[in-house]
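Quick illustration, no need to memorize.
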Amino acid sequence: MTRLQEVRREVRGAPRTWLVTGAAGFIGSALVEELLSLGQRVVGLDNFSTGSRGNLLEAAAAASGSGSGSFHFVEGDLCRAADLDEACRGVDVVLHQAALGSVPRSIDDPEATHRNNVDGFVNLLQALRRHGVRRLVYASSSSVYGDHPALPKVEEVTGAPLSPYAASKVAGELYAGVFARVYGIEAVGLRYFNVFGRRQSPEGPYAAVIPRWVRALLKGEPCVVYGDGETSRDFCYVDNVVQANLLAAAAPAEAVTRQVFNVAGGECTTLAALFAALRDGLAPRSPAAAAARLQHADFRPGDVRHSLASIDKARRVLGYAPTHTVAEGLRAALDWYVADLSAPRDGAPPPVAAHAPRAVETHG
């Protein structure tokens, strides 16, 4: 039996109350789906700034046949103490996914990135103190490795951050460590590497590369790559991230408090190779995709040239074992994207029971 199977059995046997911040984003909604399928009591917090009500409905529907969990949604803001008090009341574990993501967005608006990612995170930490919540698993980012050239990236060695987004994630790790030392919060950081998968939005100027290119390929639009196409990333399917969150939430405090772990697939993929894989995967479904070619644009400021994670620490301490390679994740994601992009759009978001004002949403 794998460690993930053990944890799922333990969690199902002893239901708890979990808060997922950024619950309407693609990572947050995947966590909601998993927890509901395990029969947990789940509280979601979001403001729909980049996530959607549809993600929550889809997550609940996907879990409906496998678990008896309950879901309570708070539409609220990490920068409002009253909203956090409502969301944190009675919670045992927090899975913090809420952030304003995207390196380019942070360069365009560094103040908003700081307010949501740093001020909002400190406000959450304060709320955990007020409500006696011990275990916090929070999303950090591979961007904290900055300009350090060594590959693969190991948790103990980082460089100078290259963007306001990266700086906000470094600050988050520092604050999590301080609150663990001073106030006893069992804070565990997960450094995500280029997560992709179902319910990741292809829309907007800051959309991640995989959903953006899938949409373009299916619609016969240009696929733009910044640079020469040899920039590389460690792409990680969302189910691997869900696994890491569960494992970190269930690990003994003495093994994980104040620790950070890389969460990735451990594979290096150039953007040119990624484009070829997406084009080949979509070609049988779209003649436009089969004939597509990359269009090159200038490198963007703040972008890291190469990224590849060592996942040895997560394997050793958490029992992390990725269930999806990049190829396997792409096959699963493409099925979802094709279905989603071909679905009718009536312009009206589905309703979700919500109360309180607005929230900060999830990154990808």
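The chain has one domain: 3-342.
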